Each structure stands twice: as C-alpha cells, then as structure tokens.
Amino acid sequence: RCWLEARGLQHQGGWERIYRDATPLPAEPLFPGDPLIPVDDPVVEEVTPRTASEWASFIDAKYRLPTSPWLTALVGRKGWRHYMLKRGGAIAAVRSLFIGPDGAAWSGIDAPVPGIMAPSFDLDAMLGERLVRDGIAAGAKLFVADIEAPLPGRDGPAYRNYDRLGFKLAYLRNHYAYLPAYSS
Question: What is the reported pLDDT for 46?
Fold first, then answer.
C-alpha cells in the first residue's frame, strides 16, 4: 500500500472476493418472497433473446453507460446465463453468471449494486440463490463473486446473505487510482 501511495496513487476502496463449492443448497428457498404481498412477489426470470434488450436497457440506465450492444451479444453465448428479478412486472435487479469449461463460475454484471446503487440487499440475495441453484444444475464446481462495498467488521447484509448461500471470503482486493488534486 505504501509503495503505491508513494507513487501518487490514492486508495479508492476495494472488493472482497468470495467463493463457494458446488454443495447443493437446501430444497426450501433461502430468501422467500413476502407472503403478505403476493401481488408484488419477486419473480426471477432467465434472460432470453426476446428479453435481452429489456435486460440490457435496465443495466444501461443504472450505470448510465451505452453497453447494450455488448450485453445483448452475451445472451445465448456459451457459458453465459443472465437473470432479471421483476416486481410487479418491472425489472428491479439483474445479475449474470458465466460458467467456464472447467466448471468455474463467476457472478457479476449486477445492477443495482447493493450497498452502492441500492440500499437493499434482498433482491440481490434472491438472484444469487437462483444463480447458485442453476449453476450447480449446469455443472458449476466453483463459484466466485465480489462484495463491492466491503465493511471492516464483515458484518453487513451482503456478508450474511452470501454466508447463507455457502460463500466464504477469499481475499480483499484494494483499488488504487491516480486522481487529480481537486478530487476526493
């Protein structure tokens, strides 16, 4: 850290890499919907070529970047699976899973990022559960993901949710950047 800072880079937070093996989850849902609000129950759908534009447009809007051409090209591509969680018919959260030929699976392309773009971690937990279940069924042997808003005590909702899904901490990756003197 001192070596980087001595060369003008500034610490900009970090991500914690987490992992789990292919141990099956319990049959009952770990993150069930609210039985008192059945009309607004969240529904997780896998993205198809028909829904790819809707999924990609949601990500574009959340990140304010024109990534749709790249994202829609991933739909149907070998190893890639993309998911949308809808509430009341509208997309509320998304996440993707890539499973390589060796069975290693990476989870990402998430929006809104819990703890950064959204205060709630519940929708991401529901998506994460579906990704793990589908990933195991598709032959994933190892899953990796990132906690993008790590907490020093590691006691926040992201940690609790990923722990319920069987994830363990691998390491913290610190981020550094050259920043102009007037930025914070």
Answer: 98
